[in-house]
Structure to design on (430 residues):
């Protein structure tokens, strides 16, 4: 449905998020719907969208209550947008809100809509807790009963063990390994040292604190529930403090290197981005701060050959081929710090002649990047990682970086559960 056979450029107008806060802290009494609605309302205020109808709003959450089956639409209804604005729920693990950006961008490029919002939210504090399937079977059988006896008889099968709650987990059902356990295997494969991981983690905190102090986040982060900045940022941490922490995912072999300090914390939060066609932005007198020009999604065989979180390595390689660009052709890089080891392993894979030849089908290594351009305003280790919100945070951050830089090109990369990766290129003409 390209109409005239030509796609339109997709403009990024800007983004908003609430502070990302450690689970069970500031947002312990609020829900995904609360956080997402507050974030959308902030975006509506920032760009004067109250009462206006947008083409679509794509939002998502990874850990979601069944009552939030229509989370996006309910968030829209409470945001201040016209109730004629539709909403759609999406989910691609940690890449959810970048996937939402791609969804909205494609609709804009195809001429199906003129403007839309993409975003995501996640709460660990308000995680859904379910019970044993045997208890669920009793409840359903009782509900199906027609007589009093039919409703009561299933309950005679109840045992105390049926009442044990089953908490959400990030264990991969195909491998029975947590994300951290999977990353420990990759860290060993790529010989990622503990020292390197802690250095990257320290840098993440230093950069994030400096960005707040310099006012970079003033128009990106709106106060919410007494929080004014991400409460995981450790301004007083040191390399020595990070080195003193014990490994948490591999305690038995003595070779573990992933700690609470060089891994992302469990986090609550929400983020959103406004995207539009250029003529719509001009009509609304809204500035275009960047363009979303290329996107790519990939998946790997994490059950066999590849590391669980290494799919972005492949996605970026393929995306750069589409764009006819080299890895070094960027002014900024935003690589999601799910774990410091993941970011480092990604960079090492691109520099490996064997990996690039055997896995990526390239005749030579993609090469190194200028590390002074990487996660320059802090990364997920310091800022936090509400699963479905991180992508929108990264996209909004990159767009502002390019705008403040007077133009340039930015590379975005996010790894996800299930062995997937979502990547994008943003550009602002100089």
């Amino acid at each position: 449905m390209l109409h005239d056979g030509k796609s339109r450029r997709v403009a990024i107008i800007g983004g908003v998020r609430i502070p990302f806060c450690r689970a069970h802290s500031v947002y312990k009494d609020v829900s995904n719907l609360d956080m997402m609605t507050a974030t959308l309302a902030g975006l509506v205020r920032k760009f004067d969208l109250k009462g206006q109808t947008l083409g679509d709003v794509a939002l998502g959450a990874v850990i979601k209550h069944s009552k939030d089956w229509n989370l996006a639409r309910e968030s829209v209804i409470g945001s201040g947008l016209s109730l004629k604005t539709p909403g759609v729920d999406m989910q691609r693990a940690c890449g959810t809100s970048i996937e939402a950006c791609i969804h909205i961008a494609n609709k804009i490029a195809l001429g199906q809509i003129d403007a839309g919002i993409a975003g995501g939210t996640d709460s660990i504090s308000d995680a859904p807790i379910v019970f044993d399937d045997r208890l669920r079977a009793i409840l359903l059988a009782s509900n199906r009963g027609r007589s009093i006896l039919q409703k009561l008889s299933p309950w005679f099968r109840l045992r105390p063990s049926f009442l044990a709650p089953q908490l959400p987990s990030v264990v991969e059902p195909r491998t029975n390994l947590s994300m951290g356990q999977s990353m420990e295997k990759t860290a060993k494969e790529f010989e990622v040292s503990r020292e390197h991981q802690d250095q990257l983690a320290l840098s993440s905190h230093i950069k994030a604190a400096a960005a707040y102090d310099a006012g970079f986040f003033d128009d990106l982060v709106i106060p919410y529930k007494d929080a004014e900045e991400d409460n995981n940022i450790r301004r007083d941490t040191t390399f020595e403090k990070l080195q003193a922490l014990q490994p948490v995912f591999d305690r038995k072999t003595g070779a573990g290197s992933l700690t609470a300090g060089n891994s992302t914390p469990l986090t609550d939060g929400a983020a959103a981005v406004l995207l539009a066609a250029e003529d719509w932005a001009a009509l609304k007198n809204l500035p275009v701060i960047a363009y979303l020009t290329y996107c790519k999604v990939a998946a790997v065989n994490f059950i066999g050959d590849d590391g669980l979180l290494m799919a972005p390595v492949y996605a970026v390689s393929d995306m750069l081929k589409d764009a006819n660009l080299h890895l070094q052709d960027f002014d900024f890089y935003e690589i999601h710090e799910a774990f410091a080891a993941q970011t480092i392993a990604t960079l090492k894979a691109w520099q490996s002649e064997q990996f690039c030849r055997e896995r990526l089908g390239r005749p030579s290594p993609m090469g190194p990047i200028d590390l002074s351009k990487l996660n320059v305003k802090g990364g997920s280790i310091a800022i936090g990682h509400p699963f479905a919100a991180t992508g929108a945070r990264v996209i909004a951050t990159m767009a502002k970086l390019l705008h403040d830089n007077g133009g340039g090109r930015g590379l975005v990369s996010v790894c996800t559960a299930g062995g997937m990766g979502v990547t994008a290129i943003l550009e602002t003409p100089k």
